């Protein structure tokens, strides 16, 4: 199939630059425009670089197509697909406007995430939600919140045991707050046991992600999530301590198998950014760790796309474990790229 | 009452130096000897300093009484009281030997902590356990593990609601592993979701701490603790995310009152290192934090001796909150100093 | 002498809160008003706390006198003295206005620091510059830049050797950039070898500080400073690697003596915030260090007011050493408090 | 040419694992044995992993050829080439033994680095030193100290201006101390202005590196290096603030050109791990930074092999700049790999 022309909105932010990284030399998409706040300041993308140079293709850095955020300009370029890393206050309107202009938008912003007509998709978890997009022209597909995505991946193989409620304490990296985000004075040698709106997002998103499709509408699951979200002095990746109450008793061996053997639709249809194994089970007692496991995922294009689980323990009907996933790759830009790859394969982009 | 002569064992370590700090100019105790590994290397205490100079009295730094760990020497000095920050492998035998030699030992080591004849005491929680020491001559009193003490303080006022089980995820500071402890390469920009033996300690200690005294013996409580212990890149203080299932329904107001009004025996008898309020309830949504709350506790001598609680939420019969306490002060040296002050007041030192 | 009424401008910032801390229970000054940006947001000072609670007196936290920045209001309160931690863009005009209204202003802002009629004073270095203030009513006295003050203190005892030029590489703490200051994403596990305007300040301030007073005007010294200013992931204190070319050859012993025996005017007249020894020479090969030496200074009120020097080496006519001082105490708020104490003693406040 | 069989000594350490990484799928070398301390403990390499999994080939992790350090075993395997990341106390004897057994040894250990018959080589700086190896059978080639290599790379293009003396202040990453290396309690939120033996190494190595070959012997240069070596809380890469006194006056433009156009022997003969540009000049005022520039070097196999320079300033005959290079790649394992590639091309391996 022919490559589709893509633009990235909000390309100067931490997630925007992960979009640049993941779309570089992409087999399905060809980036033709980067939009962000820097151009209006007379800067180049290389002036606002937040990732090491080798992450961003040189051509992007020098690109002539760098422009101010200007929805009219995006519409004139008329891309086949838009990736949005816009801040929430800009995202709501801009994304709806583009969708109404027959442009598919794959977004990391939370602004439109909970709308009834916007599928909130983690491809390994609920790719069937994409069915609610019936018209090829103009729609929004959202990835979830960074802390929800990693959790959802690890919960999916447990679903068969009858998941009742989920308690989760998160250890969230500073990059989750974007740029400039968290002042260094707040997080150096410190922990902040609160992240605005984060617990609310997890409480709402997990039930939507695990909902069912009934006559073309998503009906939320009644799973209950009790999150406590905490910011820690780590650059990338969210680690989550999870306990799940299920309906039956299972053994550590069974659950280990369930984690290890977990494969889903993106693996079956071999999407370019899909990791061979979406869940990597570590048996070492001291894993997962952000430094060692952030970039889990094979092959190279899927680095940072696998979640890692470890420290599995079961007592009665409670399964406890630790999971970790990269918050700006799998939990943000990579989530939307995978959604887009899936829609491309379906002929919907 | 006359001051008692004290020696500190293991004075070169992180906890040992907190003993030096807390016993400096102490109204009950007079440090006459510091024992540690440095003297055998021909060093002075100032050569192995792990706290800023002002924490340790100059007289200690220059002390002539600095000696190699040598239990015979301790016995010859014949102190009225010994504070032990010995590593576990040395502690078991040395402490028993000193106790059998009629010297009261107040220890932070875990080696003898779970013995039937050793009261495991957090004075605000279970000072009555000291009653099992009936002979003035020669005994061991242990403080708990750093992560157990902070948790126990916060649980005590909830006891009246009929505490059933406790789930806790910890965010533990690097100083908890002592010195040299955790290699910087393991914890810089990283999290380690495992601390050897830590979860086991919490599982055993909390039931002992909340046990009852029956005919002179401690009978463990049947409260069940499910801990996940995690190391984070913070220098001092353990933060813990706690959820407690109780027998009845209570309101946030009731529990807030219970936390705020909590006073116990050390406050009543006005021990020098006892904080006016052992629990400080923060209403700000983003507290407690290690940087801001580690040294909570008033007056000056009690800095680092109060635990801080925050983020109180209740759903049904589950109380959720975050607690924080200084791991090497309240959670280690300060815990034993408070125990010793209590025994001094009882005329048992 | 009677205590003077003081107000603090910019009290919600990192330096402003150090002013609160250093003026708490001060023997000369009585804080009657705190001005800052938080009041206009309907917040209390406790909501914008950037230091642990025990640093700031409870009375300040609850103070009724907390007000929006409003120079008219300051003038109506008519304090005997103003301490300014205003951001530069507000400082220039506000400070001149207050001074013209007969209020002495002691400022940490750089806005008016290089004016001819504003003495730039580090009391141990150039207290005689205060002589240019001849009228009791209305003036500005500035402390230097955080990186200049620590350097100047360490250079002063070397002056007698005929200081020619000074090369300095700084390791500057994140708190030097204020709040919110440096984004955590820029400095976690990272170093930034550039601080805007910092090198220029050092190049200009050191010659002014070491200038001479000629007919009531400050004539700059011709010492040449070559600084490279670098931000490092440390919360507090600036460490500086210094090499000074002098006119004669000296021995390590001579320079050690010069450092150790250094006392100056604030020590002679026994100012409350003056450290007994303004320079502390460490002979250990691995000192000074921010964690161990930031709060150097004795007695308690002078903590953080002494600079520490170490690693002294001399080859030919070049003296090399490392110095460290607390950037928001000695290098900012404490610098101005010491200036104010000196003027109080002179009867000029 | 046929691939050569290589073994890695000390493969469980930080530098050893960088050897594994850089030799994975290498066009010249085929790793047939990994030797390290873990095997004797009954562990696998994956149990002592200090880099993310994707850095080390799976085949290495599972390798049957993992063995205890056993020089006899190495000799029996009879590799064509040995890479040594041995600790110094083991390195001296083991490397000489292997060399005497006709095995070429490329070492990062400093033990034999200053021997007359051991070329100390940074290929872009002094590849001609390899000429002193005249016999193919059995020799040692050493890379320099991590802080010397980065400095040497940046000095090489300045040589033509008549380099007289070099002042350098280093900001060295924790990984430079190996594993377990620096205790986290020493370096969290802290700086240590001393690294044992490091300044001495730079003082000796730079003159040897810039020496000349006279009748088959290396005659040291008389350039004088004045280093102050400082440890900072950063995981990887050494940043160095350099000032060089030269014999003539040059312009910033000339020196910029010299940096940018610098190419040397490894680039000419196109060695696989040689970066296209060994020096990358950044014009942004706030570069180089460890986070952004550690992995500089193109193509992929040369990542971490380029040094980055920035902040170039010239006053009179003094050139000032900042340089940064990866301490365990270019400054250690990569240095030796590049040396080995050069000898392979010469037919000497």
TrEMBL record, chains A, B, C, D:
Domain of life (superkingdom): Archaea
InterPro entries: ASADH-related, Asp_semi-ald_DH_pep-lack, NAD(P)-bd_dom_sf, Semialdehyde_DH_NAD-bd, Semialdhyde_DH_dimer_dom
Broad EC category: oxidoreductase
UniProt keyword annotations, A-Z: NADP, Oxidoreductase
Molecular-function GO terms, alphabetical: aspartate-semialdehyde dehydrogenase activity; NAD binding; NADP binding; protein dimerization activity
Signal peptide: none
Domain (Semialdehyde dehydrogenase NAD-binding) ranges: 5-133
Active site, renumbered: 146 (acyl-thioester intermediate), 238 (proton acceptor)
Biological processes annotated in GO: methionine biosynthetic process; threonine biosynthetic process
Entry's EC annotation: 1.2.1.11
Family: Belongs to the aspartate-semialdehyde dehydrogenase family.
PANTHER family, per database record: ASPARTATE-SEMIALDEHYDE DEHYDROGENASE
Protein name: Aspartate-semialdehyde dehydrogenase
Source organism (scientific name): Oxyplasma meridianum
């Amino acid at each position: 199939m022919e490559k589709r022309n893509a633009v990235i909105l909000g390309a100067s932010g931490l997630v925007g630059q992960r979009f640049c990284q993941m779309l570089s030399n992409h087999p399905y998409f060809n980036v033709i425009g980067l939009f962000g706040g820097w151009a209006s300041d007379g800067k180049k993308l290389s002036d606002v670089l937040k990732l090491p140079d080798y992450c961003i293709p040189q051509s992007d850095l020098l690109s002539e197509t760098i422009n101010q955020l200007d929805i009219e300009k995006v519409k004139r370029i008329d891309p086949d697909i838009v990736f949005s890393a816009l801040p929430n206050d800009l995202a709501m309107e801009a994304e709806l406007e583009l969708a109404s202009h027959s442009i598919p938008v794959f977004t990391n912003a939370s602004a439109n995430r909970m709308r009834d007509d916007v599928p909130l998709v983690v491809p390994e978890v609920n790719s069937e939600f994409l069915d609610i997009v019936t018209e090829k022209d103009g729609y929004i597909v959202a990835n979830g919140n960074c802390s929800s995505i990693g959790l959802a991946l690890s919960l999916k193989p447990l679903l068969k045991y009858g998941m009742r409620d989920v308690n989760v304490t998160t250890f969230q990296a500073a990059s989750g707050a974007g740029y400039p985000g968290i002042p260094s004075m707040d997080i150096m040698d410190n922990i902040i046991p609160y992240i605005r709106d984060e617990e609310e997002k997890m409480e709402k998103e997990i039930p939507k992600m695990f909902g069912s499709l009934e006559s073309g509408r998503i009906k939320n699951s009644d799973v209950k999530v009790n999150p406590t979200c905490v910011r820690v002095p780590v650059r990338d990746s969210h680690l989550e301590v999870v306990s799940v109450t299920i309906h039956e008793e299972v053994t550590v061996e069974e659950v280990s198998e369930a984690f290890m053997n977990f494969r889903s639709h993106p693996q079956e249809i071999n999407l370019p950014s899909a990791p061979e194994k979406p869940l990597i089970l570590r048996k070492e007692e001291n894993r997962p760790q952000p430094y060692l496991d952030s970039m889990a995922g094979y092959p190279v294009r899927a680095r940072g796309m696998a979640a890692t689980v470890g420290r599995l323990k079961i007592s009665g009907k409670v399964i406890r474990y630790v999971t970790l996933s990269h918050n700006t790759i799998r939990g943000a830009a990579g989530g939307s790229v995978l959604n887009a790859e899936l829609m491309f394969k379906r002929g919907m982009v």
